[in-house]
């Protein structure tokens, strides 16, 4: 049986770092970041690009699920609406799979601190802070396991997810 982890959270909460650590914690694991399926300049959000990114994500995840080399498939993306999770799950071949859906959450203060660090490093623009904070409450409504990462290291978060 394969394990599938779908890990969501607002921008800057630490999804990519946690998933990279989780990949190293688990045996025969593969990781896909949804952002890699939609890295464009200029970044355009419309019906066509939304359909494209969902197709890209589901295609790659299904390829990983069908590959016998992997026991664990890890995916992360913002996934701030239940409909996004539902659409991804409905388009995956989850035969003989155990699925765990997780939302990484944190305090406004911890999120702001993380994002400011990225802004100082030139990785993000200042406008992301307000957009990210605005999305924080949306994760409460999702049918996911909530992991509060406010006071956790990347490694501690990965270990807590691996223990689910």
Would you write up a description of this structure?
The chain is α/β, with parallel strands linked by helices and 164 residues long. It has a single domain, classed as P-loop containing nucleotide triphosphate hydrolases (Rossmann fold, 3-Layer(aba) Sandwich), CATH 3.40.50. Helix content is 43%, strand content 20%. A five-stranded parallel β-sheet has the order 2-3-1-4-5, sandwiched between helices. Helix 2 (47-66) links the parallel strand 2 and strand 3. The radius of gyration is 15 Å and the shape is globular. The two termini are 16 Å apart.
How are the secondary structure elements laid out?
Layout: E1 2-9, H1 15-25, E2 29-33, H2 47-66, E3 72-77, H3 82-90, E4 97-105, H4 108-120, H5 128-135, E5 145-148, H6 154-162
Parallel strand pairs: 1-3, 1-4, 2-3, 4-5
